[in-house]
């Protein structure tokens, strides 16, 4: 896709460039107080794996994203499903996962593979039934794995009953649930040639807003003689969050699942709920993107301040449920100060865990860069008013981190370096299925094989997101143990022969074992899950190192070599307040580091990770 645009665009790093996401529209109804009370208070009471008894479970938790189509097929149709996920809870428990976030499993025409929801209150038959969901939630409790759902609030499917009614006539009571506009005459002053491409009945879209997935963000509906706004595919009309009825309905959908015992939600595209009521053109940036649309900024379609009022009400609604239910945000933001607003700043009354996308998705420098990581990690640990950071490197929208940060030679070690960063700060860790075994992005090589629509329309500049969504690699056997059906919805990458759970479980030096080891260490050591971080050796361009300390108990030193050549370091703890000079290795991915006892002249092999306690 196009080159990254500064805030407030979201940035998806892709092999062919990066994609830009934009946003939602209008109407001027004002909000009323919509605080709902829980209908049933079924807490998801589970033994917390956590750390300090007073901490809510999600603090320092390991959250694991599952793309349900791709995790485990239990009925042989070549598509992953809910019972498949349930069958893998034992594996997730053994990995030390505290919660899984399941990408949308609701009924959907699957244009955007579930992010186009046609009914928020059950499961898509291709994934299972509501009873299967209840079973998954119940089994999750047995395995101490909480269930988080993906809540798509910005838009519905165009096949949702609400939109079917809304688009039937201007007087339908649901009409104002979406964002409609009459457009303007095609011969009005200032109408661009681009806008004229979307002319219907002599009218063109009201402004230059471009859909993230290609074309104008406005779609004409002859029955109402109006355009509706869609930030994403035209099959994903944006809801009108200025209409209080929308908030009431969507909070109701959340309560439906909270009542069934889910532990919280990952909020999709959450900064995009509102658009400029004046519909001002977004500033033009010049050039075109991979879909051939003009590049525009998104200042009038993303991260508008109104969204925070909704989030505060949502937090209050969720807080009425027992069991520390959590709200996680898909928050691509330009800087830490902006991220802090999503926590509610000093009031701490918005999301508990907006994702920090500045650490794992730099946008402009996706290579291992010690100075950049040092700065970002320190910032998020110190500049969010004591809120809890959430670090993430991978998801279903981006080329896998192992390929973004990897050099093609030391990818396995580099994946371990990323894991070391992910698990050795007090931040909550969010990982993506397959990250723990070093699964690679397997991008389609032919347009006719692409499933993700943006990869079809954007080919060859944008090849879509299939590459990071390939089936989980469980074994070296047929279909990687994912399915009994030889026709899986995406092909099984040939790499499954060597990169899979079965093989890596038997290799004490594997990425899988490294992930497990770090997760277990973090659980056990207060310094690792709650320690204050002090960066060490801060002018070193090649090695990232820090010490973590709670002030009582042993401190922990972490060092990672970001280069392909050995690096010798001497770490001085003087400024950190940590006493002690001798160390004991807790985890090292290279045998040469296992007997290290001092912080002087420690040689880190290429891309080595080292974790040690200070005596
Ligand atoms: C963000 C999701 O992660 C992505 O997969 C989806 O296409 C868009 N939101 C639209 O829902």
Ligands in the structure?
1-deoxynojirimycin
Give the total of domains: 3
Oligomerization category of the chains in this entry = single chain
Name the CATH homologous superfamily of the largest domain.
Glycosidases
| Uncertain regions spanning at least 5 consecutive residues | 1-50
Instruction: Report mean pLDDT, rounded to a whole number.
Output: 91
CATH class of the largest domain: Alpha Beta
CATH architecture of the largest domain: Alpha-Beta Barrel
Helix amount: 10-25%
The number of distinct helices, counting runs of at least 4 residues, comes to: 16
* Rg for CA atoms: 24 Å
Could you explain the architecture of this structure?
By secondary structure, this protein is an alpha/beta fold. It has 3 domains: 18-155 and 244-460, TIM Barrel; 161-229, Oligo-1,6-glucosidase, domain 2 (Alpha-Beta Complex), CATH 3.90.400; 526-614, Sandwich (Immunoglobulin-like), CATH 2.60.40.1180. It is 22% helix and 17% strand. It has 16 helices and 24 strands. It has helices at 82-87, 89-95, 130-142, 161-166, 193-196, 244-259, 307-319, 336-343, 357-360, 370-382, 401-405, 411-423, 453-457, 501-505, 511-524, 526-530; strands at 10-14, 17-21, 62-66, 99-102, 146-152, 180-181, 184-185, 203-204, 218-221, 226-229, 264-268, 284-288, 294-296, 326-329, 353-354, 390-392, 428-432, 532-536, 543-549, 555-561, 567-569, 583-588, 602-604, 609-614. Strands 15-14-11-5-4-3-17-16 form an 8-stranded parallel beta sheet. A 5-stranded antiparallel beta sheet has the order 18-19-20-24-22. A hairpin with a 6-residue loop joins β18 (532-536) and β19. The radius of gyration is 24 Å and the shape is globular. The model is unreliable at 1-50 (pLDDT under 50).
């Amino acid at each position: 896709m196009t080159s990254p645009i500064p805030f407030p665009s979201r940035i998806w790093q892709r092999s062919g460039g990066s994609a830009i996401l934009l946003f939602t529209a209008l109407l001027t109804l004002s909000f009323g107080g919509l605080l709902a009370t829980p209908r049933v208070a079924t807490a998801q009471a589970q033994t917390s794996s956590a750390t300090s008894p007073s901490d809510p479970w999600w603090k320092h938790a390991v959250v694991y994203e599952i793309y349900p189509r791709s995790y485990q097929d239990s009925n042989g149709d070549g598509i992953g499903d809910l019972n498949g996920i349930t069958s893998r809870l034992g594996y997730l428990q053994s990995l030390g996962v505290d919660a899984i976030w399941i990408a949308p499993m609701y009924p959907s025409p699957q244009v955007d593979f579930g992010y186009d929801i046609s009914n928020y209150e059950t499961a898509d038959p291709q994934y299972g039934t509501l009873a299967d969901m209840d079973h998954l939630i119940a089994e999750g409790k047995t395995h101490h794995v909480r269930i988080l759902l993906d809540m798509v609030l910005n838009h519905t499917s165009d096949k949702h009953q609400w939109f079917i009614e809304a688009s039937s006539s201007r007087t339908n009571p649901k009409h104002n649930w979406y964002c409609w506009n009459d457009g303007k005459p095609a011969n009005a002053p200032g109408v661009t040639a681009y806008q004229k491409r979307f002319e219907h009945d002599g009218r063109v879209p009201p402004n230059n807003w471009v859909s993230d997935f290609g074309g104008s963000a406005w779609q004409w509906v002859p029955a109402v003689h109006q355009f509706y706004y869609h930030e994403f595919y035209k099959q994903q009309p944006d809801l009108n969050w200025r209409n209080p009825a929308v908030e009431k309905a969507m909070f109701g959908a959340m309560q439906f699942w909270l009542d069934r015992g889910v532990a919280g939600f990952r909020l999709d595209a959450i900064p995009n709920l509102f658009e400029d009521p004046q519909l001002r053109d977004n500033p033009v940036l010049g050039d075109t993107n991979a879909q051939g649309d003009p590049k525009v900024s998104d200042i009038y379609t993303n991260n508008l301040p109104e969204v925070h009022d909704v989030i505060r009400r949502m937090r209050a609604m969720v807080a009425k449920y027992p069991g520390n239910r959590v709200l996680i945000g898909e928050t691509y933001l330009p800087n830490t100060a902006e991220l802090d607003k999503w926590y509610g700043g000093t009031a701490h009354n918005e999301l508990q865990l907006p994702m920090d996308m500045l650490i794992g998705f730099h946008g402009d420098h996706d290579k291992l860069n010690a100075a950049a990581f040092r700065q970002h990690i320190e910032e998020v640990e110190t500049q969010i008013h004591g809120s809890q950071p959430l670090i993430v490197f991978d998801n279903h929208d981006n080329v896998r981190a192992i390929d973004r940060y990897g050099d093609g030679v030391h990818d396995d070690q580099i994946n371990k370096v990323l894991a070391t960063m992910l698990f050795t700060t007090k931040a909550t860790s969010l990982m993506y299925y397959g990250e723990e075994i070093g699964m690679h992005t397997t991008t389609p090589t032919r347009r006719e094989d692409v499933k993700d629509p943006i990869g079809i329309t954007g080919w060859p500049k944008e090849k879509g997101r299939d590459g990071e969504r390939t089936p989980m690699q469980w074994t070296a056997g047929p279909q990687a143990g994912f399915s009994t059906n030889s026709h899986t919805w995406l092909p099984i990458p040939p790499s499954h022969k060597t990169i899979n759970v079965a093989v890596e479980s038997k290799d004490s030096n594997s990425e899988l074992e490294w992930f497990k080891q770090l997760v277990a260490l973090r659980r056990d050591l207060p310094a690792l899950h709650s320690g204050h971080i002090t960066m060490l050796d801060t002018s070193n361009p090649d090695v990232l190192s820090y010490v973590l300390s709670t002030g009582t108990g042993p401190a922990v030193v972490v060092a990672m070599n970001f280069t392909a050549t050995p690096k010798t370091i001497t770490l001085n703890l003087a400024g950190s307040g940590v006493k002690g000079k001798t160390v004991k290795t807790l985890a090292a991915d290279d045998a040469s580091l296992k007997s290290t006892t001092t912080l002087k002249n420690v040689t880190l092999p290429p891309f080595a990770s080292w974790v040690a306690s200070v005596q």
